[in-house]
Specification:
Belongs to the sigma-70 factor family. ECF subfamily. Keywords: Sigma factor, Transcription, Transcription regulation. Pfam families: Sigma70_r2 (PF04542), Sigma70_r4_2 (PF08281). With about 180 residues, the protein is mainly alpha-helical. It folds into two domains: about 100 residues, RNA polymerase sigma factor, region 2, helix turn helix motif (Rna Polymerase Sigma Factor, Chain: A), CATH 1.10.1740; about 60 residues, Arc Repressor Mutant, subunit A. Helix content is about 75%, strand content about 0%. It has ten helices and no strands. α2 runs antiparallel to α3. It is globular. The protein starts with a helix and ends with a helix.
Length: about 180
């Protein structure tokens, strides 16, 4: 496996070239990360067609917005995975493929293998994040994980956790603030 720092430098170099409309750099960037991005899209969507569409849309956004990337938005890989994640969630919402607590698809989305996001998090300080997540209350941790890793909306979370939407929003907000404080230590 390539050293993470070397990989990030390579991705940064490719992004800079893509920002200058270098098609060959864009092709190399695609070859380098498309499989990881598709894995994330598929894990979120649970549908190959939707994952493929999200992947394509994500790369179109990367092509058009590569010049807007800067290091305070995270590593280049994290930035591109975030674009893919949000594009997948947007498409899911647009197609009203909503997941609820009783939805059978949630059982089938569980994949015991580590995904690309799992590897990135591990490399980027997963021990610290895990430790900080352990400091949260159960409802805060569950709310954050269901929201960010399963893509549930506040309404869906309220229904899944049998709690008022305002309470769910407070759990997420307070949990994220506690995570931020913990990670800044």
């Amino acid at each position: 496996m390539i050293n993470t720092e070397v990989e990030q430098e390579e991705l940064m170099t490719l992004l800079v070239a893509v920002a200058r409309s270098d098609r060959q750099a864009f092709q190399r960037l695609y070859e380098r990360i498309a499989a990881r991005m598709f894995g994330l899209c598929f894990k979120l969507a649970g549908q190959q067609e939707l994952a493929e569409e999200a992947l394509q849309d994500a790369f179109v956004q990367i092509w058009h917005h590569a010049g807007e990337y800067h290091s305070d938005r995270g590593s280049p890989l994290s930035w591109m995975l975030t674009i893919a994640r949000y594009r997948t969630l947007d498409l899911m919402r647009a197609r009203t493929v909503r997941r609820t607590a009783g939805d059978e698809r949630l059982e089938h989305l569980e994949d015991p293998r580590s995904g690309p996001l799992d590897h990135s998090l591990r490399r980027a300080g997963a021990e610290q994040l895990t430790g900080c997540l352990d400091e949260l209350s159960d409802v805060q941790r569950d709310s954050i994980l269901l929201s960010y890793y399963r893509g549930l909306t506040h309404d869906e979370l309220a229904q899944a956790l049998s709690s008022p939407i305002g309470t769910v929003k407070s759990w997420i907000r307070r949990g994220l603030m506690a995570l931020k404080r913990c990670l800044e230590r």
